[in-house]
Structure formats: C-alpha cells, structure tokens
Amino acid sequence: MTTFIVLRHAQSTANERGLLAGQLPGIHLSATGVDESEAIKETLAKVTIDRVISSPLERCLQTIEPLVAAKKMKIATDDRLIEMNYGKWSGKKLSFLSVRPLWRKIQSSPSDVTFPDGESFSNMALRVGSLLEELHRKYPKESLLLVTHGDICKFIATYFLKLPLNDLQKFLVKPASLSIYHQTSEKIAVEVFNSSATKL
Questions:
Q1: Exposed site from 14, 47, 93, 200, fewest CB < 10 Å?
Q2: Which pTM was predicted?
Q3: Is the pLDDT of residue 195 over 90?
Q4: Total domain count for the chain?
C-alpha cells in the first residue's frame, strides 16, 4: 500500500495579501506561515514518512524544512508538484480576478480553461496524474509526503476519488492543511481530508 500524505504549504505572503501567486519566485512564508511550519513539525513528528517530495517553490520548501531537519531527512523536488502557471493572472489581486468573466468559467468548468499566457487545468491534471501513477508504481509499500499548492491539492482529491476534473472546485483546501490517501492495486481509501496539519 502506498500512503500519500498531501500537504498544502503554510500561509505565504501572497495568501496574506490576497494575491494569486502561481509560479512566481520569491514568495515566502508569512509570520503566521512560519509558526504553522513549526506546528507541522510537531504534528508529523511521529508519523511514518519514507520520502518527502515537494514543489520546488520557496513557500513549500520553507513549510517542510523544520520537519525534515528534525527527522534528518532529505527533500526531493519534482516540478510536477509546482502550482499552476496562471500566466498574466500571476501576482494579481484575487479581489480583482474574481470579477473577471473567466473566473466564472474557472468555477464551473475548469477543464475548458487555459489561463492567459499560462497553463490549462487539463495540462496540470496530466502532469500531476503522471506523478501519482509513477510514485505508486515505484513505492508500493511506502509513505510519501507531498508538499504542494492549493489547486494541485484539489486535483489530487479528484484523482483519488475518481471524479471529473470539473469537480475540482468543489473542494476547499486551506494553507497548512493535509489529506491522507491509501492506494493499493484494488482500491483507494481516504483517511483524512483537509485537516489542519497544525492540529492533527
């Protein structure tokens, strides 16, 4: 059985300011996020984790650094866990974006959406799905901690629950929250969904 522990990064400065960060570099944890990363260390200290695989973006690496230091583990990064490329929307205020006509389509039928000069939800689903398939095949008896981003966490939920991509927006995934999925060749079991990783 492969266990996937899926963690969304702690609160970032972009979350704090209401910005859509996407793949922009240089987005770090806020003061609250730093506190959350320390709490995550305590929460997961006694949880069995064989490998840590993270998005390469700073906010994800910062989130998990206290835990891996305590466990004396290494972080592997994989670009397939990076946040979506929001193109021209990157760095914009969510309050501004939420009144754009495209926003309504994102909420109702994301499978039809490609961000201006950015990535499509369908492409994101392909890259993340390929990673999940690869990890289950390579590590059928390991517990894997995946550190990633909001929309990626939402897609992972649809993947394991075998839901269509257009159901992605039915899920709310908060910063510093985690979900736990167990996968065998026969079935998927959801142990935890969107629980606060600072209080599990």
A1: 93
A2: 0.95
A3: no
A4: 1
